[in-house]
């Protein structure tokens, strides 16, 4: 059952870490013109000549793309950090990145420097790269098997809430504007000159630096609250060998005294892995017993990003514009798409345990591929057939629904489930790197694809969705309500590897290292 400590630790880690990943993905979309204007003014003040338009485009694409690049670097830090500092420790240390970047971005306008914004985007990316891998791992290791999927979708739910929050705060009427000067003048009056009834509207009017700096608040909350919650019991027992602490953590998370069955299952997992020791990324790639798991997460993570979700979000504004939505209202339409994204991910939390992972992934990719195909048609015909532009709006919405129920939330859950303790950090590092590199690639290539292929670029996304769907259909097993060991046995068959477990495990408590270790032999 769901207990309060488990629910709180899921909410705090998802709000403090995953939320900001989503927030920073979309935060610079609405204030872009004001920020570019600031880049221009700063350059003009320094050099006395206006900025060349090519240089401005370069600076802006750096501002946008440095975030996923930082995410890639953050993913590379996952393995060393979670093994040395623990899962909870990594999340706490990670907050320092975000708070530092938030302060730098929030003060960039006063300091008259745009380089700092670009640097902070890298730092925020590193934060998000760590967060997007460590939170699912941390929560997956803490959850009981019957709630693992639902709790595993919570980080993705908070990513979508983060995207939505940034879209709402970024509305021109709230913070997506350039009225920071008024605030700066007010602050220089000193406390006596303040009229507090006037202060709040002024803070809201301070515009984009505040919008960028808000990201530090969730980190602060997490830094102050997460220390009161337990570390991952699996990490404590299997990696630290501390049964006492692991048992206490489990009792708190499960809300009951008797946790023997779970402790025993961890020992069983520990035993079956003693031979291999901790996997590094290199040994993960060369180890036959994990071959299909590794291929599966690479395919799912690449499919998740290369299925064009960022392209659809990027294109959404243009699609609505061509459907005759007045440009003043487009912002609100974007917000409503963000809201659909949140609602559907919330739905996934509730159905992932009943329907299972596989169905959601297959259905999601099916919806995405169908809507990409029909979208291509609709965009091509909208000049000749009047109602086609409405069909393209429907396609965008169906696409977002499809992506939100499967491709977005499930792959991270599957990484937690398909790997055991010793290989999980390395697997997240691989999955995370694929995720961020694919994200970076789409961001870089999509503008050129769109310029060269126009609406046909969605056919490429359609093909990727279909390919990913077929792979999942033939290779990826259902993992709901199974222990990590049971999932491991299913995959061992696929890898044509035998798992031999010692008999004592079935009936007695393990006595520790001196007992016979598991032997893993390949049956060629």
How would you explain this protein's 3D organization?
The protein has 524 residues and is mainly alpha-helical. Helix content is 75%, strand content 2%. It has a two-stranded antiparallel sheet with strand order 1-2. Helix 4 packs across helix 21, helix 15 packs parallel to helix 21 (424-453) and helix 15 packs antiparallel against helix 22 (457-475). The chain starts with a helix and ends with a strand. The chain crosses the membrane at residues 57-79, 91-111, 117-139, 151-171, 206-229, 294-315, 330-352, 359-381, 387-405, 426-449, 455-476. One of its GO terms (biological process) is D-glucose import.
Tag the structure with descriptive keywords.
about 525 residues; mainly alpha; Growth Hormone, Chain: A; two-stranded antiparallel ribbon; 24 helices; 2 strands; about 75% helix; MFS_sugar_transport-like; transport; sugar transport
